[in-house]
Structures
1.
Amino acid sequence: MSTSATKAVPRTRNRFVARLFVAPQFLASYTRRLAAVQLLQGKQAIVTIIFRGTFFVVSLLLILLSFSFFVAGNAYVANRIFLCLGAVLYLVCIKILIHRAHIMSAAWMLIALYVGLASLILLMWSINAPIGILVLGFIIVLAGVMLGARYIIPVTIVVIGLLSFLQLASRLGIVHPDYSSLAIASGFGDVVSYSTIFAVFALISWLSGRQMEQSLQKALVAEAALQSEKDLLAVRLEEQTRYLRESQLEEMRQLYRFAELGQQSTALLHELANHLTVLTLDIDDIQQRNHRTKAISHARESITHLDNMVGQVRHQLQETSASNVFNILTAVDEVVTNLSTMAAKVQVSLHYKKPTGQKAILGNGDALRLSQILTIIITNAIEAYGEAPTSFAEPTVFIATHITQTTVEIMITDDGQGIPDNIRQQLFTPFQSSKKNGMGIGLFIAKSMIETHFKGTISLDPSREYTRFIITLPRYSSKGR
């Protein structure tokens, strides 16, 4: 995975998480806007139809009054004609408000028109006039349909107050209604008037019911659309989750390879320092011309070992992990032989107790990694005697192997300075060292390699009389392979 690809994963994750938080908010906001738009459209449709019906009735009444005045010669209808003309101009203003989408203002003006009409009728023929009472009832229904349910009670209170005021004015003699119409027998004109009012009531009821049905239908459609969007969002969520999981796994694999390479590089530096020390000592022997042949042999072995380690790191860079069957006893013997010269230079002897009657104990893994692990632990054991090993009776590092049917135990023991109790509890954690100039990563690397590569364990013997590390490795088995 490239660096840009690695950076792209968090950016993609952040964008996706942002979508997850924005999507529900967007859907909720969309639903609210949709409901508001539907409500406004419903009110606009009702107000428009009532306006048209009112305009038609007023226009028809104006035509009839004009015919009565100009053709029949009834002069008493002149005032009524002027009232109708004023009502027409009033309705034109309402039309302008509807056109400019001022629906609530238009609705209030329509209600005010009918309140004025009812008041005029009741003033002229008292509050017992049936048409006036029907118009007031119509106003209450009209307020609930055009303005909303919350306006029904206030408008009803206003209507009751209007009736009370008109009755009080009549009692006090402020107004003088014409009661003679109550004694007149009914006629077909009354039927037409009442039928017109009932038709208007039916129209309002029909509009209200149709609007409710349309709103319900739109709500069902919106719910279906939202459910479809929710299902689509769930599919996208699943796809994005799967993509993020794959990206995270790839990122974790890449980070693990980097961590493993870092461990290998650190182990390489640690072991290179040890072998370069041995090589330096051998070169000193060559310069002093003492044990020349043996020193050159040790120098070649050190160079070969360093070359093998470089090859191992090259394999790591190529993402190939060598895992072969190898002889554990041979690997231990080679490490002891390579470190014997370094140990002798600091007056420490290595004592390797080989298992009796065993020439080969097979293990599964990389022999060079085991060599690195043993080099780290044995070098620590040698350095445990300090700069003056002669202060100890017999400065010796003991290496022994114990074999069972399924495992091989490699024990490295020294009688050096020991490990303090405060270090023992965190011995295998990084940057914890009992040495003055130690980096504190050798045992951490050794433990990581043993557990991850060899599937084994490493532990410290609890005894305070000596320091003993016990490495347990599983033996190679062709059946369990």
Note: Residues 349 and 422 are 29 Å apart (CA to CA).
2.
Amino acid sequence: MKFGVVVFPGSNCDRDMQDALQNDLNKEVIMLWHKEKDLSTFSTDDCIVLPGGFSYGDYLRCGAIARFSPMMQSVIEFANKGGKVLGVCNGFQILCESGLLPGVLLQNAHQQFVCKNVFMKNDVTGALKIPVAHGDGRYFAKDNLLDELEKNNQIIFHYCDESGSVNDSSNPNGAVRNIAGIRNKAGNVFGMMPHPERATSKSLNNIDGIKVFEYLGFN
């Protein structure tokens, strides 16, 4: 599997993602500039990654301008053909703005930027320690959509405490139903606010991020 990491003006996690994929997961990575359009070297077995940061300075809404970049037009076409796409933090916001994922990311409930290690889980991974760093990470959708996401197993991660309990105190941003990440119905587009690329190195004493990539099928 080959990875393309999109670089927007304002991206600040693109090199972290490149380093994690290349050096910790031994994957081939191609950096993609936001003004480019060509994804012809990628097949639907490959993955395009939208990294964290502040694309276009987060003017208007987070991810709202990036959604109209030349590269994102190609990414949307790639995803609609079945290609895999992963959005982390700002990348998750861009995916929601582009309509590739449902719902929206709102300002954190406490109206403060949060930067710390949190725990998240699903029934397969158990509790994983993964860093977050965002000011607009509160996932929101209406109840009927949330019920549909749960029914279709589209919620890929919930915020939890170290023991795996999902509760309000373990929710870093007020996300509805403690949602930390979701996927589309087709299962090829993934978005999450926590940063797995910041938890793949033994030198950081945390490799739980590798389990995230493995769960998503990127091993």
Note: The domain at 2-215 is CATH 3.40.50.880 (Rossmann fold).
3.
Amino acid sequence: MDIIISEFGNFLGKKSERLTIKENGKIKEEVPFFKVNQVLITSNGVSLSSDVIKECATAGIPLTFVSSDGKPYAIMQSPHLQGTVLTRREQILAYNDRRGFELAKQFAAGKIANQINLLKYISKYRKIANPDVYELLWSSISKVEDLKKALEKLDGDSIEDRRENILNLEGRSASIYWDSIAKVIPPDYGFSKREKRGATDIVNSLLNYGYGILYSQIAIAIALAGLDPYAGFLHADRSGKPSLVLDLIEEFRQPVVDRTIIGMLGKSADWKVVDGKLDDRTRKDLARRILDRLEARETYERKKFTLRTIIQRQARSVSSFVRGERKYKPFVAGW
């Protein structure tokens, strides 16, 4: 289970083999450590004992701290859980040869394919109920499929030679995708375009916070796979920018976050923005829904796995690819 701590003043402690959550000095919940998958702290004013940190590190339970706008600002986990140095050496070398180009291309291809499949998923419920929107969605799907074909034809010897081409196709696809999404979100929400930094409307605030929760899961998977989160391929290097996390997250935005939020907006979910930020109840509710979505099963390599497991397997697949052990294929969710 995932433990979400979202209330100011909570204290995390250890009692025997159990994680305890206290409020005003009184225990309000106890959970055996062997049942805990991760601890997600989304509020200020939360304190914890060194015994909890040690136990979580020993058990491989990550402690993730998330700001009010959904950005993880710290992830604590044992350094002994990471992979061998060989993986990181090959990851750095891969940037300057064809491996870097191929990874960047596949990350973008996975994102575009999942945009197509989510639009197909949305459209199948509107064929009878709203034929005009159905036709609009399939027109968009056709355009994005053409961009995906153009991406598949790209070739190159290094990512430096082709990054702009890949990003151009990815950006055009995203523009069509979000224009289409705007047509299916109930007009009461006032969503017209995708905004990242500084967004104050409910839909973009939900998306940004949801991506923050997903980001933390990707970062944990990358660390466990022995990869350097700052040595990416599709996203250019910049000091303090975890480029590889931003690369791998592209495959999972639509099946994990977009699908969850769009589905709930259609059901008139009672989510609120206060002073330009999601309120505490909304943040906790959304975090729970995203984490629940990670437990949903999807087909991966001809078997069914949870999305959480697929994220970890994809991170390990990146490790195997840079070491020359296997090909890399992006994860594409069904519709």
Note: The two ends are 27 Å apart (CA to CA).
4.
Amino acid sequence: MATEKSTVTASLPENPMLATALNKLEAAFDALDLNEGIRAFIRHPERELKVSVPIYRADGNIQVFTGYRVQHSSARGPCKGGVRFHPDVDLDEVRALAMLMSIKCAIANVPFGGAKGGVCVDPSELTKVELERLTRRYTHMILPILGKQRDIPAPDMNTNAQTMAWMMDTVSALQSESSTAITTGKPICLGGSEGRAEATGRGVVITMVEALKRLGQDPAKVSVAIQGFGNVGSHAAKIMSAEFKSKVVAVSDDTGGLYNPNGLNLDAICKHVDESPRHRLEGYSAEGTKQISNSELLTLDVDVLVPAAIENQITEKNANDIKAKLIVEGANGPVTHQADKILVDKGVILIPDILANAGGVVTSYFEWVQDLQSFFWNLEDVRSKLTEIMKRAFAEAWDMAQEKNTDLRSASFILAVKRIADAIEQRGLFP
């Protein structure tokens, strides 16, 4: 590959997640000595779609929301990525997440490229009927670029198995055929996979354990703080505690956090969350457990920190206060580019989101394969295959970091970009 230096790194976008992704992308380009043509090919998304999503509200009035679907790369296979419903969704965020999905799929070495979608909406302000209308209309609007061999959506922030069922049913109705493989993360009764709900959290734990092994630490003797007690954080907490005997001392959600230096009673906390009207931590109390803020949780004196909430939680403002020696990114983009530099300089080992939370897309791949074949696996098979792939992906990233004398995020980007670049060069251009 002939070398031509990039000329685009002088100015980065304002969106912190996109800035971080592009910065690491450019560094990987340089490390691999890629020519400018391949750099440009990977740098730019293949397709971006912005749609208007009108729905009837409960009062009979029409409200129009804005939706997006970005396909970053199909060089290694069909595009794959989640759909999020959040009031802060914008095109730059979706671009960043689509790019990160391409990188994530390449690191895990599953035959997908990256995509992402979203609607700018606060789903808590919609009734269930309105949410179904929004989901179905959004699906209809982006259908021209979807397909089980083209682009397969999955759940993301504020979407779930029900959302994927509505999307799958909408496509099936419009195409007059059963299209179970068009989405992943569906209910089991509609072609979903065993183990999909826990998959991202389990992948976080697998990478954490693999890192601790290489650092000479026993998972049963470490303390862990987890920011975010949604699907990823809650499953990670339960798996860490039950299967690896790690001491989870703090958890939090958007209502605040809980801290007990002797370890939290996760069974009681999960029961409280399941039974509370808003399914939140607020209102929970127990002897020895105190209330803390999300910002306090991030700076606790613990061995392992798992930011599993939303992006941009660790910034240059609080990075120097982080005491954990190992950070495992359960969320997408929880550490900004500036904070990343500070943490690396401090000697913190950081397992990046593109590696740590890849368990979700790996098990989505399993679900897609099962749907295409109409042949389904049991939970033990799914867990075994997920563990094998996540261990291999971590080992390859770790070895690359040692070879290049760099951090795990940079090494993961190098590994992924090489695989994407190789696929582009082998495929060539049409016409």
Note: The first strand starts at residue 47 and ends at 56.
